[in-house]
Design goal:
Length: 279
């Protein structure tokens, strides 16, 4: 789809499942299960939807889970990468070598797993051979100094090889990554989690990453149990969704199982998503 001078294409790196309780924090199952039914292992359906942005340069936001997860993880998370990121890039008329900038919302494995792969000799190398990888400096610092609470989400194989290959660009603060592409820190999910504003010719779209992972998370208090700082998520999300409704932002939902993008609307005190791009 076009947004002024930018072209936005939702990509896909497969489906997976996570525990429904963890995905909805303090919300009781009797409520969340109506929006996101659980399987026999209490998991709900999710997807990974990185975003391709073509403007002055070719950029992707996040890169899915990649192909390095072992058989145990594939079973636990029900990972099914058909189609995978490379397939959907080529369907969009792009290749891994065409990507010039890889922008990270944060470095959890379901967002950064696709940053690296193993070559024929087993060495970890960047998946996008010509790209600079743009990561918030403080997020990189946290990811490379994990503790018991976040260790399972930060896998060094996904990002340390980028630094070793000299392709990592660490940025400080909220900044323009290229014309029309701006990052804004939300905190909450991780201390330095960020979303991406896409702005051109008076139109705005926002890649919401794990601030609003699915369309089932549009209510202010529906915050993930995974979030390290849930009150920060709540406060940022409450203000952001108000802004998104009032200004008519198109929202990209990175983990929604069916809807890649839509508008958040409000009628009679009830919030809902008007889908724009769906599977
Ligand atoms: Zn995620």
């Amino acid at each position: 789809m076009r947004l002024g001078a930018l072209e936005l294409v939702p990509l896909f790196d497969g489906r997976f499942r996570l525990d429904g309780g963890a995905m909805f924090g303090v919300v009781p199952k009797t409520l969340w299960a109506r929006r996101a039914p659980a399987d026999e292992r209490n998991r709900i359906r999710l997807a990974m939807r990185p975003l391709l942005v073509r403007g002055e340069r070719t950029l992707i936001v996040d890169a899915g889970i990649g192909d390095k997860m072992d058989a145990k993880a594939v079973d636990i998370y029900a990972i099914d990468r058909r189609p995978c990121l490379r397939d959907t890039l080529s369907a969009a008329g792009a290749t891994e070598s065409a990507v010039e900038i890889v922008l990270a919302s944060h470095l959890h494995f379901d967002h950064a797993g696709g940053f690296t792969r193993r070559d024929e000799r087993g060495a970890l190398v960047p998946v996008f051979p010509r790209a600079r990888y743009v990561v918030r400096a403080a997020e990189y610092e946290d990811a490379t100094h994990p503790h018991e609470r976040n260790r399972a989400s930060y896998l060094a194989a996904n990002f340390v090889p980028l630094e070793e290959a000299g392709v990592l660009d660490l940025h400080q603060g909220n900044t323009d990554v290229m014309p029309g592409v701006r990052v804004v820190r939300t905190g909450g999910h991780t201390m330095h989690h960020q979303i991406v504003y896409l702005e051109s010719e008076g139109q705005t779209a926002v890649f919401a990453a794990d601030l609003i992972p699915t369309t089932a998370h549009i209510d202010n208090a529906w915050v993930m149990g995974y979030d390290l700082y849930p009150m920060d998520t709540f406060l940022f999300k409450r203000a952001f969704i108000r802004e998104a409704i009032d200004r008519g932002y198109l929202i990209f939902f990175e983990h929604d199982p069916d809807i890649a993008a839509g508008y958040i609307r409000e009628a009679d005190g009830r919030r809902f998503v008007e889908p724009v791009i769906r599977d």
